[in-house]
Amino acid sequence: MNIKIQIPTSDTTSTKMPAASLRSAPARSATTRANRRALFVILGLAASLSWPAFVSATPANGFASDVTKASFDSLHIVYAQEPKIRLLVNDPADYYAVINTVVPGGYSGWHTHPGPSVVLVKSGVATVYDGDDPTCTPEIYPAGTAFVDSGDGHVHMVRNEGAANLITQAFQIIPAGEARRIDAPSPGTCPF
User: Rounded CA gap, 152 and 178, in Å?
Assistant: First the structure.
């Protein structure tokens, strides 16, 4: 993420000056220097307080994703025959088709998504841990099964605890412009 912070150099409204006049600008007042120092202290404190969130995130390991994305302003699908299907997305959203390949011993890391995911297990066995489960009891999904992650802050981890590669295919609906995946710190409910 790119962040641009502009710090005023004086207490007055800025105006454009020729380069030559910048070299002879008057010294800043003691009040302005104190304000700048206070701003730097506040920015430094804010950065140090947010640092643990970056340090404690649990990135993926042995986990690769092939991602395809499309965007729509809205999507309305109504299929009236059996099985009846109704999918209504009234706001702009990004739609993803994702193929994940996880080597034996690999994992997604703790993460969430801002929208729902339908995940099909193509091969191998997906072991899914829920960040809200204090017993750290996984759900097991062998090839040919599927699961739904509701998203919206639901923290989870997918692990390949089997001997063969795990391959999943996911369909995700994410609010337009938001990150598809958000790394999360360990919830502390599992030993890993």
Answer: 12
pLDDT score, position 163 = 97
Superfamily of chain region 61-179: Jelly Rolls (2.60.120.10)
As given in the structure block, the two tokens for residue 139 are 């759900």
Nearest-5° angle of CA 61, CA 151, CA 80? 125
Helices (H), ranges, 11-137: 19-23, 30-55
pTM above 0.90, yes or no: no
Rounded average pLDDT over 110-116:
97
Report pLDDT digits (tens) over 20-60. 333 333 444 555 555 555 544 454 444 444 444 344 688 99
Sequence ranges of the domains in the chain: 19-55, 61-179
b/e for 99-134, b at 16 or more Cβ within 10 A?
Answer: ebbbeeebbbbbbbbbbebebbbbebbbbbbbbeee
